[in-house]
Design a protein that fits this description.
The complex is a heterodimer of chains A (529) and B (319).
Chain A: E1 12-15, E2 19-25, E3 35-37, E4 61-67, E5 72-77, E6 89-95, E7 106-116, H1 120-129, H2 141-151, H3 153-166, E8 181-185, E9 194-197, E10 204-210, E11 217-220, E12 226-231, E13 234-241, E14 243-246, E15 251-256, E16 263-270, E17 276-282, H4 346-350, E18 414-423, E19 428-431, E20 442-445, E21 449-456, E22 462-466, E23 471-474, E24 480-484, E25 486-489, E26 494-500, E27 505-511, H5 514-519, E28 522-528
Parallel strand pairs in A: 1-6, 7-10, 9-17, 18-21, 20-28
Antiparallel strand pairs in A: 2-4, 3-5, 5-6, 7-8, 10-15, 11-14, 11-16, 12-13, 12-15, 16-17, 18-19, 21-26, 22-25, 22-27, 23-24, 23-26, 27-28
Chain B: H1 12-19, H2 22-25, H3 30-34, H4 38-42, H5 46-50, H6 54-58, H7 62-66, H8 93-98, E1 114-127, E2 130-142, E3 146-157, E4 160-173, E5 178-189, E6 194-206, E7 209-218, E8 223-231, E9 233-234, E10 239-250, E11 262-274, E12 280-291, H9 293-301, E13 307-318
Antiparallel strand pairs in B: 1-2, 1-13, 2-3, 3-4, 4-5, 5-6, 6-7, 7-8, 8-10, 9-10, 10-11, 11-12, 12-13
Classes of the chains: A mainly beta (529), B alpha+beta (319).
Chain lengths: 529, 319
């Protein structure tokens, strides 16, 4: 399924301040929709069937018409079923009313995506039957032997015991892998090598868009520094990096200045290292630069999941009364064997690092919640799993600083804490252990300023996207950092952002991993008077 | 200067500070403030400003401020505004009319009916008494928490069905890892057909370690208990060694079906499969079958051995 016959769909170029009119005619045999990702617009223009409008019936037409109030790099995609996975997406560029602080000689969209020949409904059915279906890198007997020779018997067995008792695999970095996916740059597979032409000395703006259904990409261009100037379309204070991780649905604008080489490879490896998307910047068509090998495959650690305290802890003699506020129902106490807390008390617990995380009651003994993080942190300056200490300067969320001050400025009047929850084996995904179908809308009062605090109680990474309103990310001290439309939530993370409820109506709020969204990591946010 | 005009009442404190500089600067207080670096302002402590000595500020070097260097001010924090700096539009009837009133036709797949059918074992066995065809299958249909479970196992020896049963159980998850199941079991063989009520638990005891315990209450006061477990050992991500174990216990002797009370029989297996696809894996293996107590006695009366080590070759499939 495509828009105007191309994959990705045509690049739309709008101008800030204009009122745009787009008529979408549905020539599919099923209902469709187009959602303008990250665009501030009236609720009936947002393109989510069931929340913004009723969708576009086969042979039907819908007219989108609204004033464009922002500029930058965005994208659009279907919000119906699995259409986004099979090609209904495209880049959206909005030129600014006022000139930007930087100028470039060339401007390219680099849209990354994942393609499977399998029907997405079939992919999902397989994941429901066997959530590890696409993971061919689980730990084997050979890995066990290697670990024993490296770390010794006791450490290796303790590690295996812990994972066995959690009923999880530390190799679960992606639910869907390169086993079925081909990773694309602007619709091109790695061997057809999308190429952007430059003249040496030119400044090139690359507009990276991660339009994948399920894939995080780690992007770099060996030989070039990338100066990141915008995140999710919004200008940030420039920061020069070698590499950046792109959560699904994020966009980053970078400026590169190629000089000495005739060709440079744009290398975007999937986070689970099962494949890569690749393109080239070259002085002419047909030449290419070496393609790097995939980095070693990382494994998730207890630290990553905010369970760092568990390693080597013996809680056997522990007084439960001292653990007030800690919900351990989702967790077998056997997990904790090893920590010596012969004389446990509150002070020692606090000494374990971050404070113990409390959890919503709806998670307790919930069949759809397979783990709860113990001591999550914001992890803003963490490059992320598989990118730490790799010798490259990797962009982190701590680097993202909007060029403007907090556009609202008010102290949030209340905090809404939501936990990202799931069950790997059942392949169920939810907020607070409640799937969308069973959940009530989140109610916001028009005009109010709220803080949303997310806690990731899963071992997966989730890009959380709120429609219709900005997500103003805060640092650990509660200061405004950066304005985004999609907030990445690695395992074991707890991040807060402010939302100004300045858009009346019903808005989608969800994990942008398509299958997670489809299965229920989704809420309606209803802004009412 | 007119404080009413500014949209930043929070910054009023700062404006007061700026006011004393105004005569020097000759500019309106709002202008430098708008250009101010917000990240520095965040760090300002308003309480400090209350106690601030204005006389010191007279001596402040304004040129620094023009350059946007507010380092002197760091550590001060203005009270946050009570209204958004970016005005929030007054709602119009058009805004209200734009809100969709319809329902969610878009059903998220989480509530959809899913299913899995696994033929764990479909194998030829080299038994003491000839060649056997054995099967074991299970599956489910349902959602995340409530599922209809089906189980079947059986054996044909030299072309004659020796054992065959089918279970249909309703399963309900009672936690992340455990289901309680209850339903019926129908035996077609051995002997005449027999119907049982079944209740049990099943779940994941450890990663890749599936277990189940099911109690059965049959006709004529017969009772039974079956314990099963299997574990996957990954030699590679496709070559997988699977140990299995099954034990059956009965409450009464049943000479017609050759089962004695107490521990009746056990089967321990070790199968090595290669997953050509996840869904299709041929395997070879060995099983060790034992009969105990009265069951062994019944078997020897029929001339059968109570211990039987079998080579097995088969295929595992799911869909």
């Amino acid at each position: 399924m495509t828009i105007n016959g191309s994959l990705p769909g045509p690049t739309l170029r709008w101008r800030e301040g204009d009122t745009i009119t787009i008529r979408v005619r549905n020539r599919l045999k099923e209902e469709t929709s187009i959602h303008w990702h990250g665009i501030i617009l009236p609720t009936n223009m947002d393109g989510v069937p069931g929340l913004s409008f009723q969708g576009i019936a086969p042979d039907g037409m819908y007219e989108y018409k609204f004033k464009v109030k922002q500029h930058g790099t965005y994208w659009y995609h279907s919000h119906s079923g699995f259409q986004e996975q099979v090609g209904v997406y495209g880049p959206l560029i909005i030129d600014p009313k006022e000139p930007e602080k930087f100028s470039c000689d060339r401007d390219y969209v680099v849209m990354l995506s994942d393609w499977s020949d399998e029907n997405p409904a079939r992919v999902l059915a397989k994941l429901k039957k066997d959530s590890g279906y696409y993971n061919f890198h689980k730990r084997t007997v050979g890995d066990f032997i290697d670990d024993v020779s490296e770390k010794g018997w006791s450490k290796t067995i303790a590690d295996r015991k812990m994972w066995a008792e959690m009923k999880m695999s530390p190799t679960d970095l992606a639910d869907v892998s390169g086993y079925t996916y081909t990773y694309l740059v602007n619709g091109h597979a790695p061997d057809t090598n999308w190429t952007g032409i430059f003249k040496p000395g030119e400044k090139i703006r690359l507009r990276f868009i991660n339009a994948s259904a399920m894939t995080y990409f780690d992007v770099r261009i060996p030989g070039l520094k990338m100066t990141v100037v915008a995140a999710d379309g919004q200008p940030i204070q420039p920061v020069s990096v070698d590499e950046l991780r792109m959560a699904v649905a994020e966009t980053y604008d970078v400026i590169v200045e190629p000089t000495d080489q005739a060709a440079y490879t744009i290398f975007a490896q999937s986070m689970d290292r099962t494949g890569y998307a690749r393109g080239t910047l070259a002085i002419k068509e047909g030449i290419s630069a070496p393609v790097p090998t995939l980095d070693p495959r990382p494994q998730i650690t207890m630290d990553d999941m905010g369970m760092g305290g568990m390693e080597g802890m013996d809680m056997s003699g522990m007084d439960h009364g001292s653990m007030a506020g800690m919900d351990m129902s989702g967790m077998s106490h056997g997990d904790m064997a090893g920590m010596d807390m012969s004389n446990p008390g509150h002070s020692e617990m606090l000494g374990m690092g971050a404070a113990m995380q409390s959890h919503p009651a709806s998670e307790a003994n919930n069949p759809l919640v397979d783990m709860q993080t113990m001591s999550p942190t914001a992890k803003l300056s963490d490059p992320g799993i598989g990118l730490r200490n790799n010798g490259r300067r990797v962009l982190t969320y701590a680097d993202l600083k909007s060029t403007f001050d907090d556009p609202d400025g008010r102290v949030p009047s209340r905090t809404i804490e939501l936990h990202l929850t799931g069950h790997m084996e059942k392949f169920s995904w939810s907020f607070d252990g409640i799937e969308f179908a069973d959940a009530k809308p989140l109610l916001l009062k028009y005009g109010e300023r709220v803080r949303i605090t997310l806690v990731n109680d899963t071992m997966m990474t989730h890009p959380i996207h709120l429609h219709g309103m900005w997500s103003d990310l805060e640092d650990e001290q509660g200061n405004f950092m950066v304005r985004k439309h999609t907030i990445d939530m690695p395992p074991g993370s707890k991040r807060s952002y402010r939302v100004t409820a300045d858009a009346l109506g019903r808005w989608a709020y969800h994990c942008h991993l398509m299958y997670h969204m489809e299965l229920g990591m989704f809420r309606e946010v209803r802004v009412q008077e | 200067m007119d404080f009413e005009q500014t949209r930043y009442p929070v910054l009023a404190g700062l404006a007061i500070l700026g006011m004393s500089l105004l005569p020097l600067a000759g500019v309106r207080a709002e202008e430098p403030m708008q250009g101010m670096d917000g990240s520095q302002m965040e760090g300002m402590d308003h309480s400090q400003m209350q106690g601030m000595d204005h006389s010191q500020m007279q001596g402040m070097d304004h040129s620094q401020m023009q350059d946007g260097d507010y380092s002197d001010m760091q550590g001060m924090q203005p009270a946050a505004p009570t209204e958004s700096r970016t005005p929030i539009p007054v709602l119009t009837d058009a805004d209200r009319a734009a809100v969709y009133k319809g329902g969610m036709d878009h059903h998220m797949g989480g509530q959809a009916l899913n299913s899995l059918f696994v033929i764990d074992q479909l194998e030829w066995q080299d038994a003491n008494q000839g060649s056997a065809l054995s099967w074991e299958a299970n599956g489910w249909v349902g959602g995340n928490v409530d599922r209809l479970w089906l189980r079947s196992e059986g054996e044909r020896l030299n072309g004659v069905t020796e054992k065959a049963e089918l279970q249909a159980l309703w399963g309900h998850s009672v936690g992340p890892w455990w289901d309680v199941v209850g339903g019926v079991r129908q035996d077609f063989k051995p002997g005449s057909p027999q119907t049982w009520a079944a209740v049990g638990i099943q779940g994941l005891a450890l990663y890749d370690f599936e277990t189940q315990a099911t109690a059965f209450l049959g006709e004529g006061g017969q009772s039974a208990l079956r314990l099963k477990g299997d574990y996957d050992i990954l030699l590679t991500n496709r070559l997988i060694l699977q140990p299995t174990a099954e034990v059956n216990l009965y409450g009464q002797n049943d000479p017609r079906r050759g089962t004695g009370s107490g521990i009746s029989d056990s089967e321990v297996g070790m199968r090595l499969r290669y997953e050509v696809y996840r869904e299709f894996a041929p395997y070879i293996g060995v099983t060790w079958n034992h009969l105990y107590g009265k069951t062994a006695d019944y078997a020897s009366e029929e001339g059968a051995d109570s211990n039987d080590t079998r080579l097995v070759v088969g295929v595992r499939m799911w869909f």
